Amino acid sequence: MDPYQILGISKNATKEQVRAKYKELAKIHHPDKNKNKDSGIFETIKTAHDTIINGKSDDVESPETDVYNFLNEIKSKCKNTSNSPPPKPEVKKLDLTIDKINKMKKVELLNLCKTLNLVVDSKATKETIKDIIITSAIPTDDYNRLKEAKKAHNEYLEKLEAYETAMLNGELLPFPEF
């Protein structure tokens, strides 16, 4: 039977909640507390508690314990048995500029994300992917200043276009300030 069901708790319960529920049930079902009750009930409760807390079970197989056991097996196989430090990963220096990133196609940007170990949905827009790459490479404060400068630049370009249109229509306007 499911240890969570035995204790009457959610599978998302924290270890503290598991312990609290165990203590509550132990006060009721412990053979020393209640001589009339069957001690098998307490043993079932104790086994359920131990199973959840220790993350293993002889009677219950769950995907969580399978994954836990699998990861522990891999960790044990991957332990560095020599006294030498693990090899340093190879560091590639990429010659990137924002200009180069802006000129890249979406496929190239996605490949760059793989190189940089960035997780990006392939359905993301080209602009979103560029933003992710740039923000991963530039400290947040610098990126925010860069974004503000880009916004101000675009606004100024719009003012210049409006000025040019007005001049072509024969209107005399002061030159727009930056």
3D structure, described in words:
- This protein is mostly helical and 178 residues long.
- The protein has 2 domains: 76 residues, DnaJ domain (Helix Hairpins, Orthogonal Bundle), CATH 1.10.287.110; 71 residues, no CATH class.
- The chain has 8 helices and no strands.
- Helix 2 packs antiparallel against helix 3.
- It starts with a helix and ends in a 10-residue tail after the last helix.
- About 3% of the residues have low confidence.
Number of separate strands: 0
CATH fold-level assignment of the largest domain? Helix Hairpins
- CATH hierarchy class name of the largest domain: Mainly Alpha
Query: Which stretches are low in confidence, meaning pLDDT under 50 for 5 or more residues running?
Result: 57-61
Report the average pLDDT across residues.
Answer: 77
Shape: elongated
Topology record:
Layout: H1 3-7, H2 15-29, H3 39-54, H4 63-78, H5 98-103, H6 106-115, H7 126-137, H8 140-168
Helix pairs in contact: 2-3, 6-7
Keywords, please?
8 helices, Helix Hairpins, mainly alpha
In short:
With 178 residues, the protein is mainly alpha-helical. The protein has helices at 3-7, 15-29, 39-54, 63-78, 98-103, 106-115, 126-137, 140-168. The protein is elongated.
